[in-house]
DNA sequence: CCTCCATTGACAACCGGTTGCCGAATTGGG
DNA sequence: CCCAATTCGGCAACCGGTTGTCAATGGAGG
């Protein structure tokens, strides 16, 4: 949105606007993709986070690994647990903060949707070059590390 | 999330996950940035859409230009109108679908936040190269054009 | 052992997006 | 000219994220 003409500024702002748009697009896509598995985008993401975790994780750990708040992750974890896809496991270090693991059916479901996902990606990813995607990932990661929230805006 | 090892697949999936994370990050950032102006991220975006429009636009036109639904755009437009930042203008072509324009105060507010935004971008964009940002924009745009929703997943 | 502080989960409220439905206006075909 | 289909705004419900508050747990220091 800048009125100034600098190309870097424009690309920066454009990137942000495209992120917003891509986010909406991808959530819609993910929901449609996950629907046949009785999942939503959000539950699928959480399923993946649990499936790929090297060790059992607590809710706050999962939240921070996904970049969302503790409560946001907890909401999905509670739902997955209700649906029998995840279970709580007593955490010896923290009586109040259990580990979450996938159940058998959670693991099986993840495997099914992940297989289908890979098939899908195979059809679609041909339109992209690995280099461009790598640069995109790196650039977005840099944006994510950047938290210019601290007080530079500071007229508050 | 793929279990398969292909680098392109991995980068594709990683891109998606980074988009989700960047979206959350940027909304949080935008909200903090806009708060001193009594705006939210969403209202700021809508303000920008109106400010930069070449001609007066109707709600459905704005919605499609922003990549959101008609109702989502309408909600923000109604709020901006209530707040006196935008006004409805009779549309000769569509009696029920007025144009939306910024008011004087809406324009002034946009100018203020945009100036501050450009100052902010100047501080932050040094960490990025114009080329990487351009590639990122292009890649995200390609994702946005891609709607693999149609029926390829098709086990529904 | 006790106290203070950080962490955690539950709960409620809110925000911004979605979908779905409805009624009114507009449009286009017969 | 009329009638059906589309477009549009309003409303309600839901989803997934946020924040804030609260009580309970855990840990560290006196």
Description:
The structure is a homodimer of 156-residue chains. The first copy, chain A, is mainly alpha-helical and 156 residues long. Chain A has a domain at 46-144: Winged helix-like DNA-binding domain superfamily/Winged helix DNA-binding domain (Arc Repressor Mutant, subunit A), CATH 1.10.10.10. The first copy, chain A, has six helices and three strands; from the N terminus they run H-H-E-H-H-E-E-H-H. Chain A has a three-stranded antiparallel β-sheet. Chains A and B meet through helix 1, helix 2, helix 5 and helix 6 of A and helix 1, helix 2, helix 5 and helix 6 of B. Chain A binds a DNA duplex (30 and 30 nucleotides) through residues 24, 27-28, 31, 40-42, 58-60, 68-72, 74-76, 78, 93-97.
Keywords:
156 residues, mainly alpha, 3 strands, Arc Repressor Mutant, subunit A, homodimer, disordered N terminus, DNA-binding, disordered C terminus, 6 helices
The total count of strands of chain A amounts to 3
- Based on the coordinates given, report the CATH architecture of the domain at 46-144 in chain A: Orthogonal Bundle
The CATH topology of the domain at 46-144 in chain A turns out to be Arc Repressor Mutant, subunit A
Rg calc of chain A: 19 Å
- The number of helical elements of chain A comes to 6
Helix content of chain A: 55-70%
Largest interface (CB within 8 Å) is between: A-B, 70 and 70 residues
């Amino acid at each position: 949105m800048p009125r100034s003409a600098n190309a870097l500024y424009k690309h920066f702002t454009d990137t942000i606007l495209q992120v917003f748009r891509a986010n909406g697009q991808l959530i819609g896509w993910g929901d449609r993709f996950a629907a046949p598995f009785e999942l939503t985008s959000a539950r699928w993401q959480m399923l993946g986070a649990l499936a790929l975790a090297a060790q059992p994780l607590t809710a706050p750990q999962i939240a921070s690994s996904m970049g969302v708040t503790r409560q946001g992750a907890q909401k999905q974890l509670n739902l997955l647990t209700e649906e029998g896809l995840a279970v709580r496991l007593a955490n010896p270090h923290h009586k109040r903060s259990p580990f979450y693991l996938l159940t058998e059916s959670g693991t099986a479901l993840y495997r099914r949707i992940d297989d289908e996902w890979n098939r899908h990606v195979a059809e679609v990813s041909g339109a992209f070059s690995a280099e461009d995607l790598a640069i995109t990932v790196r650039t977005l990661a840099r944006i994510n590390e950047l938290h210019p929230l601290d007080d530079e805006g500071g007229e508050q």
